[in-house]
Amino acid sequence: MPKVRDDEAALTDGIVRLAKQYGRYGYRRIREMLIADGWRVSVKRVYRIWRREGLKVPKKQPKRGRLWLNDGSCIRLRPERPNHVWSYDFVQDQTEDKRPFRMLTVIDEYTRRCLAIVVARRLRSDDVLHCLTDLMSRHGPPEHIRSDNGPEFVAKRVRGWLGRIGVKTLYIEPGSPWENGYCESFNSKLRDELLEGEQFSTLYEAQVLIERWRQHYNAVRPHSSLGYRPPAPETILPSASDLAYAPLRPDQMLADGSPTLT
Question: Whole-structure pTM over 0.90, yes or no?
Answer without folding.
Answer: no
